[in-house]
Amino acid sequence: MSLLSGFHQVKEVLFRRKGLEQDLDKEMEFYLDHLTERYQERGLDPAEARIAARREFGMVEHWKEEVRQQQRGFLLTDTLRDLRHSLRSLYRDRGFSTVVTVVLALGIGINTAVFCVLKTVYLNPLPLPDSDRLIFISEWTEEQGSGAVSFADYLDWQELNHTCSGMGAYLDSHQN
What we know:
Order of helices and strands: HHHHHHEEH
Largest sheet: 2 strands, antiparallel
Structural class: mainly alpha
Helix content: 55-70%
């Protein structure tokens, strides 16, 4: 199917919906009439033949929905119908809509702020050259385990360093 014919079919579904529904009704009615005639040829009276045809054909609305889903533009029209229904519901319950909108806005805003902080602190590399080659050195004792290093020890380590290309220190204000 060419792009032009696909566009034409979508246009038909969007702008000629009532006509397409009438055509679909006529087609379903034609098929039911055909089945009814077949049952009448087998000897059933018209009322019984119609009941038998409906039983064989099944749910008419089910088949209509199957045909609608095969048409191009079905997804678009279905989405537009859902959007119209949602907007009508939101308009009808304005207080609830306002509360939901405020809660969503706050939730999105808080999530954005938390993500920005986490991205800056944990995901972005440190603003140092070769930050992927950094190591952490601490002092460990039997009594205290791993702990803070005194500034005098840091200066000694820096002077005796022959392995690392450089050393730096930071002050952890949360430790005692």
